[in-house]
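Give me structure tokens for this 366-residue protein.
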Amino acid sequence: MFPKKIAVLISFLLISSFSNSQILNSNKTFLYQGRVDQLQNDQVILIGTASSVSFNFTGNECSISLQSVDSYEHHNYVQLILDGKYIGKIRIEKGSIQSFPIKVTSNQKEHRLEIYKNTEAQSGNILFAGTTAKLTSISFKKKKKIEFIGDSITCGAASDPTEVPCDKGEYMDHHNGYYAYGPTLSRAIGADYLMSCVSGIGMYRNWNDEHKDEAIMPEVYPNLYLTKDASKPKYDFAFQPDIISIALGTNDFSGGDGKKERLPFNPENYVSNYINFIKMLYQHNPNVQIVITNSPMVGAERAVVFEDCLNKVKNAFANDKSHKPIQIFKFKPMTPNGCSGHPNVADHKVLAEEYGSFLKKLLNEK
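Here you go.
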């Protein structure tokens, strides 16, 4: 919904060693999660919403080195969790690698810092270039896993005007990926998560594009960077979620900006693309439980058509004995309180509470 034109990501001089969705570095001192591109020398590109790097350390302070990286210079954001407590956002100004001090306030002997990308892939990337911390080993517990595929709502875009008002700044200034409904409910139910979301994107067309100039989700999803840039690594599907949640349709149903020509919604194209997208996901995730959702932002007659489309998608797999039956989840209608007609952080908490109990029950059945 309501994306700005974001330029294609630049090619990095560093050579990508491999990409994954939940990995430890060779020394087991850094934990990388989400859509990330691990480079040489323990540097990593944080790509997707709420992708992260975490580490344990001793001492009362350290610094972290970060850089906003894109095909044009602009700022970006990360969010920090220190010893399990949210300590806020860091704005990474455009330009070279910058150092940010981290002060410890607790008396623990060992501390954990988690650095989350606040913005989405289309807002550019963030290079984690290292830390001065006295590192100790880090590990992670195996948890049930959920992947969230969606648009700006899933990304937590336009949800947080607390530091920059809605009528000020740029699109990335109002993101809050950490408190989007997916990460929020995952933390509440004790699940790991992967975010694969793009603002303005749809299943067969986008917010203000009839699939003429912009790529749709089935085209960008297999690329690690969620673009069609063939120079970038492909996504390796290593996460292997227990559940994949797909929330796409808000932009397919959208009327656009009211200026650019917009065709009537095409149910056949939407359903056909949805079916083929799920088939692709099954090829790479044969044991996954797929959940498809409506949108809290699509109401009235469009909501009826939306639900009918989702039922057609589900029914297309009615005779599929190789996979778990597709589930449909219906969000309650919502009047959003964020920027540009989006849910704000409080709204995302409501969405997380609605959806979390449903997903927790499904995970417990696995």
